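Form 12-C: Joint structure prediction
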Amino acid sequence: MTSHSPAAAAVRLAGVEQVFTTSAGGMKALEDINLSVAPGEFVSLIGPSGCGKSTLLRIVGDLIQPTAGVVEVNGKSAHEARVKREYGMVFQAPVLFDWRTVEANVRLPLELMGMERRQREARVREMLELVELGSFIRHYPHQLSGGMQQRVAIARALALEPTLLLMDEPFGALDEMTRERLNSEVLRIWGQTRTTVIFVTHSIPEAVFLSTRVVVMSPRPGRITHIVDIDLDQPRNDQSRETERYFELVTDVREGLRGRRSGGSEGRLRAEGGIG
Amino acid sequence: MSTEPEVELQSSAASTGVPSVPVLPGEPSRRQRAVRRALSFTLFVLGIGIVWEGAKWLAGDKWRLTSIGYEHTPPFRIQQLSDLNLPHLWDIAASFGEPFQRNANYSLLNYLIDQALFTWGEALVGFGVGAAIGLALASIFVHSGLLERAFVPYVVASQTVPIVALAPLIVVSFGRGLTSIVIIATYLTFFPVTIAVMRGLRSPDPRAVELMRSYAGSRWDIYRKVRLPASIPYLFTALKIAAAASLVGTIIGEGPGGVQQGLGRAILTFNQQYITGPEKLWATIIVAAGVGLLFFMMVQLAEALVVRRRGGGPRTA
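Section 2 - Result
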């Protein structure tokens, strides 16, 4: 299940290792990361703080160069993919520019791309409709709630029609109700755009609800300990959160995080090594 | 819309497209605020006047107000409160209407306004050039750690040299006249702009830079789309300081600079004539302060307009 042919992979990581040099010497942030993500997959990275999941996301996005290993995106190097603008990124904070209106924030990547004006405006409108903020185009970020700001950030990330969407705990700062609603929206958007998503999260229910696969990581050094296939029916809705299978999968991921998951060998990569 | 967006400030803004800031009941309107500000300024000036004249009433020279027939001998005497050192405010006020020199058909007020405009013109050039240099230096330093380490200490050191000592040297090098004066004003202006804009250019969230990189944005893209707009509030703070500094530089520079006009020249002249007419120097100082205040307020107005155009966000306010 975990091995896809390299040519078809949206993301392929092989032997990725990351060492940060600090004043105290080298600190191994990631060790022997191997992962292959098929186009259209929704993969969550989950693990305790310090397990390197955000670092891994940045390596995939070519914002950090790994110390060792191979990173390929759509069959190209990560750098090539970035230069060809194949990424969309969403962070935990919306990172909107407060001097730009909602519309102008979403337009920013299109300006960089040099898209022609009329086409640009149509795209911005389309993206804001997609996140259901069509009537807020002239607002400034500070006039919106946290959840709305994050939806603007998502619209902006999707504006370039990226083949790969990288999300770094995008809903970590939101309340539970807003988070669940945005989870459903992300799934709807994912269904409409067919983009490959890599999603970093702290939340087990969120990871299970959203993903096709959940990658469980452990810290010091950060490595992949389990991969849980999420076989909930698509498309998912609020009822999916109440099925028995959903709770089983939540338990699977939770036990994976505790490092004592034994059952469900399918999709398991390496079960050794607990959390330090 | 299938989901109800969580609206915090729902107003006509959504339909008109104009961002609106809610006015809460009980909060003063813009006009009320202006009235209050004018009132507190008046009270402040009035307070200074009362302290000034009160001190003179207690320990100044003998009061002889012939027009209303009032005479008063202060119970104490302090040299610094004499009519020569601290003229009565009404004498200063009256001096504005008198000829600025014996036999001149030009009132002191007219004369001082002319000199103020001349000085302001010089200061504006220095302000503009200094701000441009400050912006350029900050942009260079933020992009080159090497140049920053090499030159920023000298930029800082440059400001520890007293301008009074430096001004004559500048005049020797560039000759008497406007060029030297503008250079002196520039010298005082570029520094606050350099330091503040460096800070502003570095103010964006590191993730904003990552975001731009994820869109394959170049350093130039990051500079003009993120760093420069983010530095605008910092720039305005520096420009307010620079407005005052450029005026001070110009007034000081007019002495060694040898121009025959300007507030600096007027201050030197009236300083020499102080014994015969102390009010004139005081009047000149008041005008100089007024010009500084006006310049400052113009920068503030420009800031308000820019910030409003940017939506008046919480961080830019």
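Section 3 - Comments
The CA atoms of residues 244 and 289 of chain B lie 9 Å apart. The radius of gyration of chain B is 26 Å.
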